[in-house]
Amino acid sequence: MSGSGARYNPEITATPATTPSRPALRTLLPSLCTLATWGPAAVLTIVALLQIVMVYRADLTPWEGGGFGMFSTLDYETNRRFLVEGMDQKGEGLQVNLFAGDQRRHSRLRIKPDRKEIERLAEELLQTELIPDKQEQVKVRLGMASAWRLRKAVEKQSAPLKLVRVKSPDVEIDPKEILRLKAVRLSLWRKKFDTINCRLSWERIGQPVVKGHWP
Amino acid sequence: MTSGFLAHLREDILGQPRHLLVLKLTCLFLLFRGYGDEPYLFPFNLFFAMLCMAMLVSPTLLTQRLLWGSLALSLLYLIARHWHFTDNHQYLMLYWFLVCALALSTDRTDELLSWNSRLLLSLAFGLATLWKLLEGEYLNGSFFHIVFLEGHELRGVGGFLGGLLPRTAHENLAIVQYLNLLPPGAVTATLTTTSGVRFVSLLASYFALLIEAGICLSLLCRLAGKPRWLAEASDYLLLIFIVSTFSFAQVTRFASLLAIMGFAQCSQERPRLRLAYIAVYFYVFVSHHVHFHFLRGGFQWAL
């Protein structure tokens, strides 16, 4: 039938087909044909509807979740970043570099920010030993010291905080340099592009999560 | 002699039942490209490769619905476990393997493969268009604008066509890299663009929107059977989309799957179009290793 290019009619297909070798299957055939005709498309539609709900209700990135939103927006995982501001025991402001932690977990949270999981992450950060992230600080300084046009193009409204990262067990460091937080604030941001002014900026997603005694 | 060989090849390819060729192309795709590139997928890719090799060698195994069902179940497991990191084409792979398993359970395999590929493709392209409209970044061209200015893969193409100076393109990249080092929040970065880049961005955006909406509509018309002129345009639109998009963007698994599904729904009365799908399928295979790097290198050299 399809060989001649004729149109497929699901209603005709729903009639029982004869397969003498499998009598048990024969009784199932009408439902199997209906399932084969509409089943995969129904699954696709249900998954896509769930994805749309999750994007608008739970800040899931449109790129993921099976709704065919890839390449539709700049709002994808690598354009989302966590800002982790901390306060050490002396009350000094710090910024925690999450790049040094469990990357897969952080990626998952950037794709779909689960508030309970972010609160758990914040609590873990309060219990964790932190060390100065000298490598990252050098990179920022090098960036600042490069081309004049680059310095002119990037506008900062606040002074950068001291960068720290989670201490991994294999790192040997002077115990005096180890820091602990008394408060932490986590917020998720996404990159935005203003095409008229050709300007990149950040937009916060949802409310920040605060743990500890934040002033 | 060459024409004789080509005629023989054509007869050999198009002479066999369409659904068998579709199943073979699907196995070949999974054998060589696997499900994904992440290291944790290696055992699954190995399992898929062994299964597909056996199915390609044995015609009996190729049409075993249980084997296709086990492939679909494996993909379902992977997606359920790692849904945060699952790409669109991997969902489409699951639906396609499900179609193969279900279609092989009936005596109307070929018709069901054809029907489902039209339905799934029209839904996928419809949703892709819907997202592009909802987000609005295609309507003002901002998606391609920033991709041409900062995107690593397409920067060369947009810059070349839009007349962006190489020095400016490198400065833009340095600005974006510096911005990524700074904490997000009250920080902005202004990039340099040209009217040419803006124009190319808008052109690319509307081309993508129109062709994706066109594929969705034409395939729906194909299912409905009218209007005929729009229904018949679906194959041309799909082929143009695969070649134009995947020559530049490195999403070759999606392209291969689109070519297979395109072939599955292509009328047997149109042998040239069916051959075009096969050619595109192998073009995508080759482009994954050669063409993309060649094109990208060419544009970067020109810059």
Summarize the structure.
Chain A has 215 residues and is α+β, with helices and mostly antiparallel strands.
Please describe the structure with a list of short key phrases separated by commas or semicolons:
heterodimer; A: alpha+beta; 7 strands; B: 303 residues; mainly alpha; 2 domains; 1% strand
Protein described:
The complex is a heterodimer of chains A (215) and B (303). With 215 residues, chain A is α+β, with helices and mostly antiparallel strands. Chain A has two domains: 10-49, no CATH class; 81-146 and 160-169 and 177-212, no CATH class. Chain A is 37% helix and 25% strand. In chain A, strands 3-5-2-1-6-7 form a six-stranded mixed beta sheet, sandwiched between helices. In chain A, strand 6 (181-194) and strand 7 form a beta hairpin. Chain A starts with 9 loop residues before the first helix and ends with a strand. Chain B has 303 residues and is mainly alpha-helical. Chain B has two domains: 1-107, no CATH class; 108-303, no CATH class. In chain B, 79% of the residues lie in helices and 1% in strands. In chain B, helix 6 (88-104) runs parallel beside helix 13 (252-265) and helix 7 crosses helix 13. The longest helix of chain B is centred in the last third of the chain and has 30 residues, at 195-224. Chain B is globular. Chains A and B meet through helix 2, helix 3, helix 5, helix 6 and strand 4 of A and helix 6, helix 7, helix 8, helix 10 and strand 1 of B. Strand 7 (199-212) of chain A pairs antiparallel with strand 1 (187-190) of chain B, so a sheet runs across the interface.
